[in-house]
Amino acid sequence: MSDYKINTKCVQGGYTPGNGEPRQIPIIQSTTFKYTTSEDMGKLFDLEASGYFYTRLQNPTNDMVAAKICDMEGGTAAMLTSSGQAANFYAIFNIANCGDHVVASSTIYGGTYNLFHVTMRKMGIDFTFVSPDCTEEELNAAFKPNTKAVFGETIANPALTVLDIEKFAKAAHAHGVPLVVDNTFATPVNCRPIEWGCDIVTHSTTKYMDGHGAGVGGAIVDSGKFDWLAHADKFPGLCTPDDSYHGITYAEKFGQGGAFITKCTAQLMRDFGSIQSPQNAFLLNLGLESLHVRMPRHCENALAVAKYLKSHPKISFVTYPGLEGDKYYELAQKYMPNGTCGVVSFGFKGGRTAAETFMKHLRLAAIETHVADARTCTLHPASATHRQMNDEELVAAGITPDLVRFSCGIEDEADLIADIEQALAQV
Ligand SMILES: *Cc1c(COP(=O)(O)O)cnc(C)c1O
To answer: Quick one: 51 and 31 in the same domain?
Structure first.
């Protein structure tokens, strides 16, 4: 599929049925797989042969969907995980151990920030957070001798900052480590970070990829471009023998294109078991089949909403990287010329009370702790996800008390604006 355009890959990537085989991806709802001899199975356990033996590690349905996402991102290998959280944890923990250090953008998703700043710190992994807008000098100064990766989000949730992928890739590579980019909000329809120098891509497939609020899931894609063996001293897990697999050295046995995902599956999926269910993988694939049709509509609706709000007398600010004049408009034009995402954030001249009143009167847009769904959903972080913070803490976290996050679905733009208009009239 790799010569086809992204629209074709969304529809047909990952699975090509043979003569008389099912047209749709089969759901292999089986925990285990049968073999004729113990020797056959032994080869699988030694990673001497490829095949399935237990769904905690790998499942054929999941692998077909992972292959589609791999193709869409332009990678060499990919895997599904049970959630976006698991994908980001695995992607980092696959190369950073206790005593190691990671450089991350400061405007990442709150769940990922907690994972890094609290939970992975307890595992002995240190993080330095840098502004996505930092200079090259500031970025380079964040590296330490034990740095093993750099992490950022193409479009940050919910900050809506745009990552200068080339700047981050250049710094990562100058220090002999890979750049990991969470591409959840842009999706490979709007941006393929690997084309800009990113080495590992992660996703919360829960968002646009599924797109219908049906299943929580994640994915990791390897570009196959990072030369682990050239930096063997930094990545012993990939470049020295793994005793739990009879002394296999992943980077030698599976090459640059396969080592990262094979190790991630063979060690992390084996030991942590955050596998996606085959049922959910099937639903995810249905979502992927229309991703290229939905993304432009999400972006058109968001741009229309952003433009409407920008000129509204009751609105104090609008943040949308696709809107001319936005702080990230130029970067967005460079990395995502066809559109960014469907999420817009804005604030009210009347402050927190105005935001609360607005939320109360929305009819079509639903209040949810979710984004990137076919149905428009919205959240007032100060009274929901960030309600434990006082106004000063909110401002420090980049979330003003009056900020509303508005995730435009794929409904008719006129209905969305009418809903906003009548809610604003109550403010
Ligand atoms: C939602 C989200 C995650 C976490 O994904 P889950 O599927 O909810 O575990 C990670 N990164 C980004 C950018 C997200 O929006």
So the answer is: yes
